[in-house]
Fold this protein.
Amino acid sequence: MIQQIKSWLEDATVDIFIGYRDVDGHAVPHGYTADRLEELGNWTVGTHRYPLETFALHLARIHPEATIGLLGRDCNQRALNVLSVWNQLHADRIRVLSLSCCPSALKTRADCSYLVPRKSGSFKHQVGVDAEMEAAELEALPSGERWARWAYEFQKCIKCYGCRDICPVCFCAECSLESDELVGTGKLPPEVPIFHLVRATHMAGRCVDCGLCEEACPADIPLRLLYRKVNAIVEDLFGYQTGSDTAQPPLSVLGDRVELEPLPMEKTG
Amino acid sequence: MTVKRVRFIQELLRFVGLEGRVHLEWISSAEAGKFVQVVTEFTETIRRLGPNPIQRTVRPFKASGPRRLGTSSAPSEAETDAESSEEPAAASHL
Ligand code: SF4
Ligand code: SF4
Ligand code: SF4
């Protein structure tokens, strides 16, 4: 892997390669470049995950001409696909070096932080929504209880925006979650359930189920389950598969484009 | 498209347990009778569903840390407290 990156940097296949670097035992995202090849000595790969494509996106916004290489897990690849479907990244300026992260009998370890099952306490089991729950299990409950459980989860939100900031497909320059008209800013918990449902709606046709938001959430809200459901609805209604479809997602366009000739003011009056 | 978008919202709300409160219907300006019928039926549906469960479940956030000296709960806070305690006991639970 290191040899491959070295040759990509040396023959200028990529201008920068984004991977991880070992800093005192911690893996930190790092951009390797041709003029500092010796840094590859600290190259590391492990279970830690960052949305490396977000770094690529920010770099591409500053240097639109650069070719960027990055280490890609399955989730990174799906996110890259979504970013290119939404015209945020040019697929031809991105080179991905695949990292096989999923467990398999052929390798000794699985390089993903998500594979450790999460455990919830008994209180959460009683009144909340457990992250390990399946959508169908939840739907089997009466609606009043379903609402009570989600309300319990949503009310724990401390509005740190961690879920949005870590999300590889939350790329908007202006975020609705900070708009006073939409979600009523400046209150804690953020307006229940609007704050979470706004984000859920935005994740329709976008969320690649990487699970980073749920890992980042300090309040342990089962966000991934909510967004998974949203994308199941999108698939049911529109036949759209997020992350693998190459067309624009169904909720991103305002219906068919209307081409109307603007009329001069005096004639319309 | 609109039908599917509204279906999307209905499904999402159903998933969090707030179903039945969004309805879509096409009514032409010539169909006064239909308009009255649809609105009456939907009003009835909403009435049957009862009051907005969001207000019943979601309690306003109160800082539970050490209170600053001398601020014996602001008047507005006292008011809302009084209001909520008048509601039936069941309302303050899930
Ligand atoms: S799982 Fe969370 S972080 Fe990952 S794409 Fe979906 S919303 Fe974003
Ligand atoms: S929450 Fe919505 S508006 Fe905010 S960055 Fe994500 S997709 Fe964009
Ligand atoms: S990460 Fe969790 S606590 Fe922070 S804003 Fe998102 S849902 Fe709320």
In short: The interface with chain A takes residues 1-2, 4-5, 7-9, 11-19, 53-54, 57-59, 61, 94 of chain B (CB under 8 Å). Residues 65-94 of chain B have pLDDT under 50 and may be disordered. The longest helix of chain B spans residues 32-49.
